[in-house]
Design a protein that fits this description.
Length: 216
């Protein structure tokens, strides 16, 4: 991964179309290797998650190009490589695993990002109605040693929920995410795919809990 991180560093200093096209051959090579690694990761995770069988890395990996149409930031390229590991790939609405490689900002993440309000309300009720199970998942020793809850929260209880609930911090969440920041060298060595698959294994109970709402 050393070459990938070096490339991303240089891209962050030269985030323009001229430099990108001059170095397009290197990008194409790195993207091909990235797709291969993500596919290996998917296949490894599919050994313990049947929903990932047959998932194609091309559906999971994000493009390098930024959508700048409505953004004040007009830099054309992302300075990271990322992928959503889930059935449906990056278009999934369900709980998933997310891999982010960016110099100094790498991480393993999971859960549901920015759900629409109807889904968010259902998730909040799922947490409220099954709080013991939820607390058991996030309090598991192996899980808690890796992941912490993250994401935005409301300052007050949402309408329709008991404002005196002792579990308000979980009901007020605007998205149900967990994160594990890692150093860049986490991805060094030939075994990083196996290590990542093993660390992602501990997110599965959390995602399974969130995904109950899709079965109701």
């Amino acid at each position: 991964m050393g070459q990938l991180f070096d490339y991303l560093e240089r891209l962050s200093w030269n985030n323009n179309r001229e430099w990108f096209h001059e170095n397009k051959a290197e990008f194409d090579e790195l993207r091909a290797l990235w797709l291969n690694d993500v596919q290996r990761l998917i296949n490894r995770m599919a050994e313990y998650d049947n929903t990932l069988k047959g998932v194609d890395a091309k559906d999971c990996v994000y493009r390098i190009y930024r959508d700048i149409r409505f953004s004040p930031n007009k830099l054309p390229y992302k300075t990271y490589f990322s992928a959503v590991i889930a059935q449906g790939g990056r278009k999934t609405l369900k709980g998933c695993c997310y891999l982010h490689l960016q110099p100094g900002e790498c991480g393993l993440h999971g859960g549901i990002w920015c759900p629409e309000m109807p889904l968010l309300t259902r998730l909040r009720h799922e947490v409220e109605d099954n709080i013991d199970e939820f607390l058991g998942i996030i309090g598991d020793k192996e899980f808690a040693s890796r992941y912490k809850l993250s994401g935005d929260s409301l300052k007050t209880m949402p309408k329709g929920f008991d404002r005196n609930s002792p579990y308000g911090e979980y009901i007020k969440m605007k998205e149900y995410l967990v994160s594990m920041p890692v150093a860049d060298n986490y991805f060094s060595g030939d075994d990083w795919v196996e290590r990542t698959a093993e660390d992602f294994r501990y997110i599965k109970p959390f995602n399974d809990f969130l995904n109950y709402v899709f079965e109701e």
